[in-house]
Amino acid sequence: MTASSLSFRLAVLCVIAGMAMGIGMAASQDHSIMPAHAHLNLLGWVSLFLFGIYYERRPALDISRLAMIQVVLWSIGTVVLTIAVAAIHLGYAAAEPVAAIASLIVLAAMLIFAYFVFRPAHVVEPGPTVRMTPAE
C-alpha cells in the first residue's frame, strides 16, 4: 500500500465518522462535541486527503516508509485528539493531558510532512504530468 492510498482511505473513514457525529449532534440537539467534530473533519478528512494528493503527485515519496509513518502518526494523533476533545467538552477534564499528547503527535507528523515539502526540488521530483488530448 502507498502513502496516498492509505491517506485517501483513512480520509474517507474520517469523513464518514465526522458525518455520523454531525448527524448524532443534530438528532440529539446536543452540540457540545462540535469542536471534536471540527477536528475530525479538518484533520482527518481534509488534511489526510491533501496529504494523499501530495504523495500521489510524488511517486518516490508515495512509496517511502517515512511517508507511511507520517500518515499513520497523523491518523493516530487525529483519532486520539478527537476523542480527547470530545471528552473535554463533555466535562472530563482528565482528558486534557491526552489531548496535549495527541496534539504533539499531530505536530510531529506535520513536521515530517514539512520536511517533505521543504526538501530541495531535485530530491523529490513530481510525478509525470497527465496531458489530456481531445478525442478525434
Number of domains: 1
Give the percentage of residues in beta strands: under 5%
| Alpha-carbon distance between the two ends | 37 Å
Helix count, DSSP H or I runs of 4 or more residues = 5
Q: Uncertain regions: pLDDT < 50 for 5+ in a row?
A: none
H/E element string?
HHHHH
The helicity comes to over 70%
| Major β-sheet profile | none
Mean pLDDT: 91
Radius of gyration: 18 Å
Report the strand count.
Answer: 0
Question: Given the helix and strand composition, which structural class is it?
Answer: mainly alpha
Q: Tell the overall outline.
A: flat
Describe the 3D structure.
The chain is mainly alpha-helical and about 140 residues long. The chain has one domain (about 5-120). About 75% of the residues lie in helices and about 0% in strands. It is built from 5 helices and no strands. The longest helix has 26 residues, at about 5-30.
